[in-house]
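Subject: for your reference before the review

Hello V.,

The reviewers asked for a structural picture of the protein, and I figured it would be easier to keep everything in one thread rather than splitting it across files. Below is the amino acid sequence we used in the manuscript, unchanged from the supplementary table.
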Amino acid sequence: MAASARSVLSLSAWDTGRIWGRHSVLVAKCLCSATAAAQPLSAQQLAENLRAKKQEQKAKEREVPRDPVQRRVQELKRYTQQLQNVHPNVLSKALKRGILHQDKNLVVINKPYGLPVHGGPGVKSCITDILPILAKMLYGDKAEPLHLCHRLDKETTGVMVLARDKEMAYQVQELFKTRQVAKKYWAICVGVPVHSAGMIDIPIIEKEVQGQQKHHKMTLAPNYRMENGKTMKVRPNRHAHVAVTQYQVLSSTLSCALLELQPITGVKHQLRVHLAFGLGCPVLGDHKYSDWNKLAPQKLSVGILKKLGLEKTKTRYLPLHLHAQQLILPSLSSENQELNLVCKLPKFFVHSLSHLRLEIPEKD
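And here is what came back from the structure prediction:
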């Protein structure tokens, strides 16, 4: 009996030692792995991790959506990114192919979506940078760079006038300043204006938006306000700019409309502000002015998303549907007649019209 007790005790001691030994090895391994994790990654390891992440991102971008509208959104996103990386010579050739009018004084181009007019932080390609190259392509190596006569927002497409020399550029700029140039824009807006045609005459001012993301936006500075059901005139803000826009509904459904806009004045973001805050019908794809308080993707109804075939998470890639459709320049000399410059709608605009069941009016 005593012998068996001794054997049990000795076995227990041996088992205990074995268990503690395994535990020590496990603790050591954990400590080693924790120490390895705490050590900074080498440059090679960091490069490999970054390369793996990039490859994963590229694989996601290469995935082709089944829905045709989703594919078009993906193409527009890729196209905008490519515009910033394309060589100036290639971009100049593309603009040359899309020339709407050319004479001894002027060159009129079809400005593409996503191409800024001026440079700035993060801008690799812009129209002003390629004006010397485009001039050489059109008129030879000794040609003077072309000159801007006016500007369009980065996201706006359509008619853009360039001049061959400074004097002509100044002459055309004066026509714009003195409101002698007739301008017509087409826009798809979210919502339908109460009146099918009218004039918006509300001054515009730039203000800082307070919140998590402080930023500046243009907004309305009306000369009248409602008080006890009566319209009261208020003192005009000395920093506000006079802004007047004529509009007409060309086609509409219950949820959206195609508008023709004629800006009488030329204030920054005038059309977008007047539609969003004046009519309460923001431009489709206007992620800046659809909400005053924040910078966020435009909120669209389930009905519009369904018609466009868009997922809610993809609305940030929806382009601005604002197109400079026509410019009428008065005669620049006794020899010339007025110039009627018309630019066809971009493909994405036409596709959206079709999906939203908005009709393009027949030409007169």
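For the response letter, the relevant points are probably these. The chain has two domains: 66-178, 181-357. The longest strand covers residues 182-190.

Happy to draft the paragraph if you're swamped.

O.
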